[in-house]
Amino acid sequence: MLSLRYFPSMSGERVRQRRLLRGWSQAELGAAAGMSRQSVVAVEAGRHVPSVVAALGLAAALDCTVENLFGGGGTDAVLPVLADVAEPAPGTPLAVARVGSTQVWAPLAESDASGFCLADAVWTAQGPQLLDGASGDGFVVAGCEPALGMAASAAPGKGAARLVVVHASSGRSLAALAAERVHAAVVHGPVGGLPPVQAGVARWELARWPVGLAYNGTMPPLGEVGAGRVPVAHRDSQAASEEALHRALAAAGAAGRVAGPVASGHLASARITAEGRVAAGVTIAAAASAVGLDFTAFEEHVVQLWVDRRFVEHPGMSTLLQVWCSPRVSAQLRRLGGYALAGAGAEVTT
User: Fold this and answer.
1) Could you point out which of 35, 127, 165, 256 has its C-alpha 20 to 30 Å from the C-alpha of 281?
2) DSSP per residue over 275-298, as a string?
3) What is the pLDDT of residue 4?
């Protein structure tokens, strides 16, 4: 039988967070739970202990148990998508979503080339604070594929089919998948040279593209790059493109003492190069083309979507594949150049 012992330790903030994750107003939660908006306001502010009937109504409306909503222990985990991300400064904008029972977050840039970014939450001393009207639903995918942002733009902006993209190298993305902090990871590497497949993971091909060096006019000698005498924009040690660079250096008999800034992604590497800050950048052909650079390939990589099998029926999973294979996105990828899409959307079973 339900006991009032749950209520003295209740968390009004927990009610508020779950309400905001559903995108509801206080009036909408009240209607769903069979109580007034004023009562919801009082519960969230910690000024009112709901009756047993009201507590059951709130829990049912928010799709959780009374114990989870009002109990003193066992709160859901709140974790960064990428384990190596430092705690943000207060007020930092965040993307927020739920993976299983874990609420995950990732810092957002305050702005991009088109203007200010829309956040789900901001960082506070207590952790992520959801913004009114924000949706904590969605399908969280980490990876360095630059076109993931395009796919997210073509997907619904709210609800379970929303795509929450966290840009990270293949190695960091796989670590997030193994830690159950994302629904899926996008990884790439030479055919036959991808990392070992984790247990409980399903795979789909997205594309194939060349990895190499972007430069303006003349490609620097690999011997000079490997000796650190010519700085290049390169990637973190867990990036598949960084591994490709070192394989190319080894094949040329060059050293591996690469110097230069560590770029956050393929487009960032190409932009740093186009700005003249380095002689070349490790990137993909489409990124080089997008900023008007020349490009020399080292390897062709296959790009795959690795999905936790528990989430293959997630609405965001089907949305991602549908959007990726849509005529609109496919045409734009072909226009950019460098994307081979013959196998796009095919499940990988071998």
Assistant:
1) 165
2) TTSSSEEEEEHHHHHHTT-EEEEE
3) 34
